[in-house]
Design brief:
The protein has 203 residues and is mainly alpha-helical. The protein has twelve helices and six strands. Strands 1-2 form a two-stranded antiparallel sheet. It has a two-stranded parallel ribbon with strand order 3-4.
């Protein structure tokens, strides 16, 4: 990830490894992509997802709810990028989170870290009912418009090069953020070279 690091259900005890393995198989496996899309498009809540898989994974809804929430609360936040976003806002630059994510992000992660106070906008697929790459990245274009910006005045950081293709195609700036741990110094160097008037005090 770009903004956070961690895994869903990471708090499930080792003794329950069979449940965790079954979750990976039934939710995060390539063969379960339709279920994942349904969740990320906000068509189902995490409670509904858990109700549909509980028996398959050998657990119950309450157990799954608890460990999903607990694992999300334990996820690391990229403090360097948060600091960068706050600094940009102080310079009058509008900032946003643009993410393909589940309702757990909107309902738990965002309020827990007060992200709606740190960014001007939060565009989550589960809230807006569409994924980044749907319909030739219509969500991306809609996001830029809602921010009252234009592609040529917009920078997107993402770990997916696929969305970068669309960003470049419409004339925007794209930075492929590849490594949560080590990428920040590389990004700051790139940012200073491309946005000199904003990047002088980055570190």
């Amino acid at each position: 990830g770009v903004l956070s690091k961690g895994r869903f259900y990471s708090t499930i005890p080792e003794k329950n490894y069979k449940i965790k393995d079954a979750i990976n198989k039934n939710v995060f496996n390539k063969g379960s992509w339709n279920l994942m899309q349904t969740w990320m498009r906000g068509e189902k809540s995490f409670e509904e997802i858990h109700k549909s898989i509980a028996e398959k994974v050998g657990s119950n809804v309450e157990f799954l709810n608890k460990h999903l929430i607990d694992s999300v609360l334990r996820m690391q936040l990229n403090k360097g990028l948060i600091k960068f976003a706050i600094q940009m806002r102080s310079l009058g630059v509008r900032t946003a989170i643009f993410t393909d994510n589940m309702d757990i992000f909107d309902r738990v992660f965002v309020p827990y870290h007060s992200l709606n106070e740190k960014f001007d906008f939060i565009f989550s697929s589960s809230t807006y009912k569409k994924l980044k790459l749907d319909n030739d990245a219509f969500f991306l274009k809609e996001t830029i418009k809602k921010m009252k910006s234009s592609p040529s005045e917009t920078l997107l950081l993402d770990d997916s090069p696929e969305i970068g293709v669309y960003m470049n195609k419409i004339g925007g700036y794209f930075y492929h953020y590849q490594d949560y741990e080590k990428e920040l110094p590389k990004f700051f160097k790139w940012f200073k070279e491309n946005f000199a008037k904003y990047g002088t005090n980055l570190r």
